[in-house]
Design brief:
The protein has 469 residues and is mostly loops. The protein has strands spanning 146-147, 165-166, 217-218, 237-239, 256-258, 403-405, 423-425, 443-445, 463-465. It holds the Pfam family Pentapeptide.
Length: 469
């Protein structure tokens, strides 16, 4: 049943709403007491002040629903999805929430007496000021949940011991994943939030005076009306969707804007999770990006000259036409990435994983790819002049019609690779595996093939001169 577009608020109690689609519906103050809404879709619905006492919302989708000051006493929300929902100051006396997804849910000042939270997921949930007396917490996952000194629990319950974090002045939340968490109006003066992930977090009205948010991720976060006096944002990141108090300039406090075309030369972003970001054409030359996570990010045409990308996670990244001259990328992973026409001149990619990468037209002149994994990579048209590929894995890779000049492939695995119509000049293939390698129509000049495994190698129409077998 789809009633999300036009909702008649006056006769909802008389309708069959089991499994109904009420996504985004405006239901502020509606009376749905005792109604069967099991399996209903109420994602992002507005339910402030609604009467949902004794309502069946089992298996319902209430993700990001707005439910401040809603009455949910004795309601059944077992197996419901309430991720990111706002239940601020709501009443949930005796409410059934077993197996519910309550990650990043806001229960600020909620009345949760005798609520059943058995086997719920509460990471990032805000329980500040909530009354949890006589609550059932058996097997509840409270690691990463948030609470304050005003949160009321039974004497036998220790929220900190269960993995929850205290929101209070001077508290340490360093490195905590608070993605989507609602911690508005919290007292966090002098708090340690270094390296914390606050992506899409709500911090409206939060007191962050003298707080340390160095290297924090503030992507798409809402900090409107927050107190940022003397805050530290050194090497923190934010996006165009991040909301700050009027007149506040985060760059003056050391933060970096993550957006296409930005200049971040020499920045220190090591270890940050920036998966999927858009940094097209950005200048990140000489930046420290070691151990950074940039999976599926767009850095096409970006300037990364001499950047440190050691152990970076770049799987699925778009680096088309990017300048990676002289980068340190040892042990980085760029599986199935788009690296077409990227410039890797003199790059250090030792032991890098580039399996399945598209390197067509890339410039690898003088690059170090010793022991790198290039299995099933596409290297057609790549410039491999003086590239060090000693011990490389090129199994199943395509180098068709590619020129290999003064390339070191000693001990490399080229089994089943396509080198048909390839030109090889002064290439070292000593001890290389060429089992079932396609060399049809290839031209080999001064190639060293001593101890190479040529078992089942396809060498039809191969031209060899001054080569050593």
């Amino acid at each position: 049943m789809n009633v999300s577009e036009s909702v008649n608020r006056h006769n909802l109690r008389e309708r069959n709403l089991k499994g109904a689609n009420l996504a985004g519906a405006e239901l502020k103050g509606v009376n749905l007491r005792g109604v069967d809404l099991s399996g209903a879709n109420l994602q992002k619905a507005v339910l402030h002040y609604a009467d949902l006492v004794d309502t069946n919302l089992s298996n319902a989708n209430l993700e990001e629903a707005l439910m401040a000051k809603t009455f949910l006493n004795l309601a059944n929300l077992s197996h419901a999805n309430l991720r990111g929902a706002n239940l601020r100051e709501s009443s949930l006396i005796g409410t059934e929430l077993t197996h519910a997804d309550l990650r990043a849910t806001n229960f600020l000042k909620a009345n949760m007496i005798s609520v059943n939270l058995a086997q719920t997921q509460l990471a990032g949930a805000n329980l500040s000021g909530a009354d949890l007396r006589e609550a059932q917490l058996k097997d509840a996952l409270l690691k990463g949940a948030l609470y304050s000194h005003r949160t009321i629990v039974d004497a036998s319950v220790d929220l900190a011991q269960l993995g929850a974090y205290l929101l209070a002045p001077g508290t340490s939340l360093r490195g905590l994943n608070l993605t989507g968490a609602d911690i508005s109006d919290a007292e966090l003066k002098g708090a340690d939030l270094r390296e914390s992930n606050l992506t899409r977090a709500v911090l409206t009205g939060t007191n962050l005076e003298e707080a340390n948010l160095s290297r924090a991720n503030l992507s798409d976060a809402n900090l409107q009306e927050s107190n940022l006096i003397d805050v530290s944002l050194t090497n923190a990141i934010y996006t165009l969707k991040t909301l700050f108090p009027s007149g506040f300039d985060p760059t003056q406090f050391g933060a970096y804007l993550i957006a296409p075309g930005v200049t971040m030369q020499g920045s220190h972003l090591s270890g940050l999770a920036l998966n999927g970001v858009d940094l097209r054409g950005a200048n990140l030359s000489r930046s420290n990006l070691s151990a950074i996570a940039l999976a599926h990010a767009d850095l096409s045409r970006a300037n990364l000259r001499k950047a440190n990308l050691r152990t970076a996670q770049l799987n699925g990244i778009d680096l088309r036409e990017a300048d990676l001259t002289g980068i340190i990328g040892s042990k980085c992973s760029a599986i199935a990435s788009d690296l077409r026409q990227a410039d890797f001149t003199r790059a250090n990619l030792r032991k890098a994983n580039l399996s399945g990468a598209d390197l067509r037209g890339a410039d690898l002149t003088g690059a170090n790819l010793q022991e790198a994994d290039l299995s099933f990579a596409d290297l057609r048209g790549a410039d491999l002049t003086k590239t060090d590929l000693q011990g490389v894995n090129l199994r199943g890779a395509s180098l068709r019609k590619t020129e290999l000049v003064q390339v070191n492939l000693e001990g490399g695995d080229l089994s089943e690779a396509d080198l048909s119509q390839t030109f090889l000049f002064r290439v070292n293939l000593k001890g290389a595996k060429l089992k079932r390698t396609h060399l049809r129509g290839a031209i080999l000049r001064e190639v060293l093939l001593v101890n190479a495994d040529l078992n089942e190698t396809q060498m039809n129409e191969v031209s060899m001169s001054d080569s050593v077998l």
